[in-house]
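Appendix B. One record, verbatim.
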Amino acid sequence: MISFFFEDIENLNLPEKKIIKWLDTVVEKYNFIQGDLSYIFASDQYILEINKQYLNHDYFTDVITFDYTESNIISGDIFISADRVKENAESFGVNFIDELLRVIVHGTLHLIGFKDKTDIEKQEMTKQEDESLKLFGDVE
């Protein structure tokens, strides 16, 4: 089951049903089964506190993924900073929703097993994000 939560920010009025169908498609593409996925949209400050408390990192980030996947059943909590997404969208010259979708699927791809620590891993992650974003347009 996919759930959306808003902590320390206003509801973003996302097309939740379409996003859920899209994420189902992405997860199935990699031969995984959707388990419990929570997407928690929050402020920079909220994410910073999560980053400090659980990862001992004292910096802002756009997404933090906590992976509870077992076998091929994808489960996890994905914390997303709406502030970082907005700033990144402006920096990259894209609209907020497009950047938000990229970050949503980025967290999901981490649960599937994609990493982004090395340059090669980052290139592969970006490729998988791009392929997944194309699928969003096909969802009704």
